[in-house]
């Protein structure tokens, strides 16, 4: 495993933060059920989408030496009952930023989402 200097990590984190805030819309994160695609180049199956959350603009709350913290999302209504297994973040231009595995990359208090329920992410930290 390679190690990067703190300055290199800060540059990567700041670049990611700038990418998330680019575009004319707000950055979003969509939680899905089912199998996560092998790559961010693979289009997500929209029939597996459970909920779409929107970040405020700018979405970046803080850039630290080891992470970029995003502001809390809005509260959204779950559109389908299911178990959240992964999430995909998009920047304000609708471009894929990152895929996250629930339980590994992102922790949820409850992964079982119910149709019509409310859902929000209060703390969201991205690490290089």
Plain-language structure description:
The protein has 128 residues and is an alpha+beta fold. It is 12% helix and 31% strand. The protein is built from one helix and eleven strands. The chain has one helix spanning 6-21; strands at 28-32, 49-54, 60-63, 68-70, 76-77, 82-83, 86-90, 96-101, 112-113, 118-119, 124-126. The strands form four sheets. Strands 2-1-7-8 form a four-stranded antiparallel beta sheet, covered by helices on one side. Strands 3-4-11 form a three-stranded antiparallel beta sheet, with helices on one face. β3 and β4 (68-70) form a beta hairpin. The longest helix has 16 residues, at 6-21. The chain is globular, with a radius of gyration of 15 Å. The protein starts with 5 loop residues before the first helix and ends with a strand. The mean pLDDT is 91.
Task: Give the topology.
Elements: H1 6-21, E1 28-32, E2 49-54, E3 60-63, E4 68-70, E5 76-77, E6 82-83, E7 86-90, E8 96-101, E9 112-113, E10 118-119, E11 124-126
Antiparallel strand pairs: 1-2, 1-7, 3-4, 4-11, 5-10, 6-9, 7-8
In short:
By secondary structure, the chain is α+β, with helices and mostly antiparallel strands.
User: Unreliable segments (pLDDT under 50, ≥5 consecutive)?
Assistant: none
Strand order of the largest sheet: 2-1-7-8
Radius of gyration over alpha carbons?
15 Å
What does the average pLDDT come to?
A: 91
Distance between the termini: 13 Å
Order of helices and strands: HEEEEEEEEEEE
* Continuous helix count: 1
How many distinct beta strands? 11
Strand portion, in percent? Answer: 25-35%
Basic shape: globular
Structural class category: alpha+beta
Helical percentage = 10-25%
Largest sheet: 4 strands, antiparallel
């Amino acid at each position: 495993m390679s190690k990067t200097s703190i300055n290199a990590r800060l540059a990567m984190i700041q670049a990611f933060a700038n990418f998330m805030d680019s575009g004319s819309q707000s950055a979003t994160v969509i939680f899905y059920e089912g199998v996560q695609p092998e790559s961010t180049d693979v289009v997500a199956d929209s029939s597996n989408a459970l909920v779409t959350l929107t970040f405020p603009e700018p979405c970046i709350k803080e850039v630290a030496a080891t992470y970029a913290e995003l502001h809390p999302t809005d509260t959204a209504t779950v559109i389908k009952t299911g178990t959240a297994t992964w999430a995909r973040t998009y920047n304000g231009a609708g471009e894929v930023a990152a895929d996250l595995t629930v339980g590994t990359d992102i922790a949820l208090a409850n992964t079982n989402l119910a149709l019509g329920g409310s859902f929000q992410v209060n703390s969201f930290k991205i690490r290089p």
